[in-house]
Amino acid sequence: MFATHVNRISYKKFNLDMLRTSLDVQTIRKDFPILDRKVNGRPLVYLDNAATSQTPQQVIDVIVDYYSNYNANIHRGVHALSQEATDKYEEARKKIQEHFNIAKSHEIIFTSGTTHAINLVANGFSSFLKQGDEILVSAMEHHSNIVPWQMLAERTGAILKVIPMSLDGELEMDAYEELLSDKTKLVFCNHVSNALGTINPIQEIIDKAHEIGAAVLIDGAQAAPHIKADLKALNVDFYTVSAHKMCGPTGVGMLYGKEEWLNTLPPYQGGGEMIAEVTFEKTTYADLPHKFEAGTPNICGGIAFGAALDYMNAIGFESMAKYEKELLDYATKRLSEIDGLKIYGTAKNKTSVISFNIEGIHPYDIGTILDKLGIAVRTGHHCAQPIMDFYKIPGTVRASFSFYNTKEEVDILVEGVQRAKSMLL
Amino acid sequence: MTIEEIQEEIVDEFSMFDDWMQRYEYMIELGKSLPLINEKYKTEDNIIKGCQSKVWVHAELEDDKLVFTADSDAIITKGIIAILIRSFSNQRPQDIINADTDFIDEIGLKEHLSPTRANGLVSMIKQLKLYAVAYQTQLN
Question: Which residues form the Fe-S metabolism associated domain (chain B) (predicted)?
Fold first, then answer.
């Protein structure tokens, strides 16, 4: 059993080295067992990657290995398994540090995902904001980067202001500059929009906010699978990521925070692991990152997150981005040929996401027919209702492509949409 | 016709189809023939929660029978409601309360019965039955 496992790993390593030079999609697809399954009697065409990505065998192996060989609680144990698990978990933190070019590993807080990470920061800012302070949000946020801040505004009396966007789905940077003032304390914006795919000019957003002394949180959930963000260069205050969008498991993610911010913010949850000393009179808190990591974390998830980064880096973000751009261009061209089809989000800079509708048809109907054809897309408001209100539509059909999708799958999608259209109109 | 007889009739109609496409095409046709709700009843209060598409249902008592009208902005959802309304409309509230909906499974739409399905078929059935309960109380 053990020998097979080792063989497989080394075989995969060999494969991945070969892949560095060019993206061999057919070989990559073999890493994802789920891509072989059938849905409603047809081969699965998985185009809901912006909701969650699929998991390669290399990451599944790491999860199985953890529960088969060294499952234990971390940081406190004196026994061998606990030590092994702790080492692997901390090794994963180092991998994240290296991947995102983060100055210090204790600036990385393991969270359950992006939502948890944003709530942690929003909660911490309760003690820093006062009545009349302003916080800025972009018009194209996911609800998870709106609601925690609305709650913060309610608690503190701070005012939430919105950076508007154009019909193309690009932020209006002039309006952003006008909104910034000495009242602005915080700016939060996604790196990439989940509903439209727009890549936002975050460097400019960060620099402009810093000029007036405001802090910036960038939600990197949709960017991380496509763009290797250099957090040191960006000089961002907070950056959040979910592992399940980038070939990792669900229920784990990270909050990056600058050391000085994390030291200033109060703890989010109380419990074990996050304390230095507890008496009934007073508790002192542990140092970073443990101050924000109360309770037993998602140990296996964290380790698998590290493995997912290894997997994606072995393929290479540059090759993936180049290939995904080809898929995006091809899909945009092919879908645009369908009469009555309108694409929402036509920013010059976007990731491989296409949100669309067909005139006279509800997105839910298209999604239902596509599902019968084995094609997985997302329909609805994509947890970004303000964007749907902006375009005055109930929702869209969203096809989101990953590096393991193919042009043939784009063709199947286009045929499926055409078939749905002829059935529904 | 009783609810049961109508449901048997629907099952018979659907048994003529060989594949899902024909079933869905028929359902879309049924959706187009749905007795439309009066615009004045398309209010927030009449929207059934739990649907990705909007669904409005209105119920009115005519003599001792309940008459349903409905609409949706999605056509497949409309087809599903049309099937439900055909089996429940013009029936006595007590019979609606007692009726089961196993025929949905028999006509090959089982997948729509999952409580987590975004079309909210389960919420629709619940809402129709709630109307029946409310009117039954009134009749008592």
Answer: 11-129
